[in-house]
Amino acid sequence: MELLNLPTFDYKLQKKDGKLYIFDQLRKKYLFLTPEEWVRQHFVNYLITHLAYPKSLIKLESGLSYNNVQKRTDIQVFDRSGQLFMIIECKAPYVALTQAVFEQVAQYNHSLRSPYVVITNGMSQYCCQTNWETFQIDFLENLPLFP
User: Fold this and answer.
1) Where does the Type I restriction enzyme R protein N-terminal domain lie (predicted)?
2) Is residue 75 pLDDT above 80, yes or no?
3) C-alpha separations of 98 from 3, 77, 103, 122, 138 in Å
4) Is the pLDDT higher at 67 or at 121?
């Protein structure tokens, strides 16, 4: 896997039947190592280790329904009262963060109504804040502090 523009960490890899797996510290199991999973595990570590987001308030690959179609967010972060605080869409490092990626996560957020949305490919990231009363969307320089 390639180096990302995220802090490295002591990840655990395991080879089984010629395939590589990475240990997921939240789900406490090894997952097949895809480029997207590589980004997701690095980003989760970044949230927990460097931004002090509580790991107990982070949920991975959570389902949602949009236009009667089942979808799934990569990462959801909840605040201390259990309200959705942030959704994060992870892409492989070689996937450009285009308008289509923004539209994908915006569709998810139309149902979820999270105040913050992040997209990342491990090389770059964008964070938006949505004011649901005015429908104003602002791009932020950095991820917000955990409330």
Assistant:
1) 35-144
2) yes
3) 21, 23, 9, 14, 17
4) 121
Given a contact cutoff of 8 angstroms between Cβ atoms, the answer to whether 58 and 52 are in contact is no
Q: How far apart are the first and last CA of the chain?
A: 33
pTM: 0.91
CB count in 10 Å sphere of residue 80: 11
Tell me the percentage of the chain whose pLDDT exceeds 70: 95
- Whole-angstrom Cα distance, residue 4 to residue 146? 23
The CA-atom distances, in angstroms, between 100 and each of 35, 91, 97, 106, 130 are 19, 12, 8, 10, 18
Instruction: Identify the pLDDT of residue 65.
Output: 58
